[in-house]
Amino acid sequence: MERFEAARAVDLIERYRVNAVTAVTIMLQRIARLPGIETRDLSSLEVVLHGGAPLPHWLADWWIDRVGPTHFSVSYGSSENAGACVARGDEWLAHRGTVGRPVNTELRILDDHGVEVPAGTVGNIYMRRPGQTAPTYDYRGAATPSTRPDLFSWLGDMGSVDEEGYLYLADRRVDMIISGGVNIYPAEVEAALSDHPLVNDVVVVGRPDPEWGQRVHAVVELVTSAEGTVDTDELREHCRALLAGYKVPKSIELVAKLPRTTAGKIRRAQFTASSSAG
Fold it and tell me: Could you tell me if 241 and 258 lie in one domain?
């Protein structure tokens, strides 16, 4: 396919008996939300590997149930090859929300002063390859992310590890919203909104607020059949059942289509400026 289309992807999986798929969150979500997907034949899939963005719990549950826990895996890594973490579906079920344990990778969670934080505490995710003697990457035309003298690299992501060494993503530091002095991670709010069966895509950003510094703003794309049947008040109520009150979007904007790249990425900066919202 020249670009991802969920319906065509399923057609091709059935026709060619595809046995391995690598996909980002939005791709897996659009397949899961396809009308009639319950009756489609995905039995050829031996490996479904997720990566590229935080994965909502409901979506991980859907795929694990559909293909089986040993055929679904989550991962975390980077094109900079600084390191990688992987967890199979059965591990994910035992450590809900994880993106895995390090594979051929050394992992540390450090605070802003470079001090390692305890298990369960969110900090900056630093990784390096065992035996590494030089940086694995260099940026051209942009500032190279933080690399320590010991060659541990930070690519802007924040997260924590549990007592068994499983990594949990919080979000990218640059995307974090600070409202009333409290840190809010957009990925958590996006996961709550995507849990609504009529939400097709969503991005959450911080907008300037004279009282709180920033407010939580959500831009939502509904599934086509839901247009006109779901309003922003219903979406906020849905969030209130899943999130602490201060994380519920103060404003929600409904759009016809969220622009994503062919890799499933979205440029948040274009949504941070003030505009009309519901």
Answer: yes
Residue 214 tokens read as: 């920033």
Paired tokens of 129: 């390859």
pLDDT in tens, 14-46: 999 999 999 999 899 999 999 999 999 999 999
CATH classification of the domain holding 266: 3.30.300.30
Partners of 177 in beta bridges = 184
Residue 169 has pLDDT above 70, yes or no: yes
Name 33's bridge partners. none
277 lies in a domain? no
Contact 79, 52 (CB under 8 A): no
Q: Quick one: which of 62, 126, 127 has its CA closest to 92?
A: 62
Question: 277: pLDDT confidence band, cut at 50, 70 and 90?
Answer: very low
Q: What region, left, alpha or beta, does residue 134 occupy, with left being phi > 0 and alpha being psi -120 to 50 degrees?
A: beta
Strand 251-255 to strand 213-222: parallel, antiparallel, or no bridges (unpaired)?
parallel
Going by pLDDT thresholds of 50, 70 and 90, the confidence category of residue 273 is low
**Cα 224 from chain centroid?**
23
DSSP string, 195-257: TSTTEEEEEEEEEEETTTEEEEEEEEEE-GGGTTT--HHHHHHHHHTTS-GGGS-SEEEEES-
pTM of the model: 0.82
- At residue 226 the predicted structure's pLDDT band, cuts being 50, 70 and 90, is low
| Domain shared by 32 and 157, yes or no | yes
